[in-house]
């Protein structure tokens, strides 16, 4: 009996490895192992209560991908606090709410917050550490000083210009904006940043606007990828004729054969 626990902060990376390792146990993958997935149970432990923040992509994962495997249990609002590697026990902090007394005036129940520590035995555990901004930004006045994005570069979510220091612009993961911690986003930040930086050097207002473009090529099984593209407004497929919430073999082929040459010969030379 394999018991596999997953915990994460960077949820979309861990769902990839979750699905690929489960598929591998079904006998798929590069060297096609034995079909032993019936002997394995997977727990996907996560802070929050959704697999994916965009409803259309979440629906595919909830309604199709998780049931297709049949041995994955989602454990919401579970945050890893401790690991005992010798005895293979992970301890999670589980937060949840229960109904309290009924408030007749408001016609609502009071909600009571609970926290419990949950021990889980595992044979294999895959942990993604929490993402943090680099110290040099987090511990300076460049970072947001308060709120959810505390420590990440305090910049305008469209112009990527620092909110206070107008000669500072940001690119990549360090940005304290609601979306965009992917290499695909950084590629879109680049031209916006250059245009706005040149405008500011010329004494003009920065006009170019980043739209929040993010891409998560989510491997749902060996041979299939759901190319989840989105921006601040919702879905943002590069090929709108194809339903972006469908896992497709062509995105797997694209990822395998096209991305590398595109990266080295086009992106790195600033040609796309
Ligand atoms: C498991 C995983 C899978 C991913 N898959 C994808 C994917 O399929 N597609 C996609 O588009 N994106 C993916 N990403 C996200 C992508 O890797 C990042 O968005 C991207 O690398 C961000 O680039 P960056 O240059 O902003 O930051 P980084 O790549 O983090 O580069 C920052 C660099 O700065 C260096 N540094 C830090 N502090 C200092 C300092 N004080 N002085 C000097 N140097 C310093 C670091 O060592 C690092 O080399 C994935 C990320 C992870 C973790």
What do these coordinates show?
The chain folds into two domains: 126 residues, FAD/NAD(P)-binding domain (3-Layer(bba) Sandwich); 67 residues, no CATH class. The protein has five helices and ten strands; from the N terminus they run E-H-E-H-E-E-E-E-E-H-H-E-E-E-H. The strands form three sheets. Strands 3-2-1-7 form a four-stranded parallel beta sheet. Strands 4-5-6 form a three-stranded antiparallel beta sheet, with no helix packed on it. Strand 9 and strand 10 form a beta hairpin. It is globular. The mean pLDDT is 91. The structure holds flavin-adenine dinucleotide (FAD). The site of flavin-adenine dinucleotide has 13 residues, from helix 4 and strand 8. The site of flavin-adenine dinucleotide (FAD) has 13 residues, from helix 4 and strand 8.
Percent helix, as a range, is 25-40%
Rounded to the nearest angstrom, the distance between the terminal CA atoms is: 48 Å
Q: Which strand-content bin applies to the residues?
A: 25-35%
CATH topology of the largest domain: FAD/NAD(P)-binding domain
**Coarse structural class:** alpha/beta
The stretches of 5 or more residues where confidence is low (pLDDT under 50) are none
Radius of gyration: 22 Å
CATH class of the largest domain: Alpha Beta
């Amino acid at each position: 009996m394999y018991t596999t626990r997953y915990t994460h902060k960077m949820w979309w990376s861990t769902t990839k490895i979750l699905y690929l390792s489960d598929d591998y146990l079904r006998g798929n993958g590069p060297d096609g192992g034995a079909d032993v997935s019936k002997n394995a149970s997977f727990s996907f432990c996560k802070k929050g209560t959704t697999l994916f923040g965009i409803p259309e992509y979440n629906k595919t994962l909830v309604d199709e991908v998780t049931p297709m495997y049949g041995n994955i249990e989602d454990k919401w609002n579970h945050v890893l606090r401790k690991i005992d590697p010798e005895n293979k026990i992970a301890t999670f902090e589980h937060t949840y709410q229960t109904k309290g007394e009924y408030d007749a005036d408001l016609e609502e129940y009071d909600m009571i917050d609970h926290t419990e520590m949950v021990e889980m035995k595992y044979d294999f555990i895959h942990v993604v550490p929490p993402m943090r901004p680099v110290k040099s930004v987090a511990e300076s006045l460049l970072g947001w000083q308060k709120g959810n994005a505390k420590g990440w570069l305090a910049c305008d979510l469209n112009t990527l210009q620092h909110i206070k220091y107008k000669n500072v612009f940001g690119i990549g993961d360090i940005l304290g904006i609601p979306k965009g911690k992917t290499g695909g986003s950084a590629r879109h930040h680049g031209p916006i940043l250059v245009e706005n930086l040149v405008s500011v050097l010329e004494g003009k207002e920065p006009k170019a606007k980043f739209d929040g473009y993010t891409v998560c090529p989510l491997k749902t099984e060996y041979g299939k990828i759901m190319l989840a593209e989105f921006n601040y407004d919702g879905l943002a497929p590069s090929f709108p004729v194809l339903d972006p919430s469908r896992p497709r073999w062509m995105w797997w082929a694209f990822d395998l054969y096209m991305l590398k040459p595109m990266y080295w010969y086009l992106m790195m030379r600033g040609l796309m």
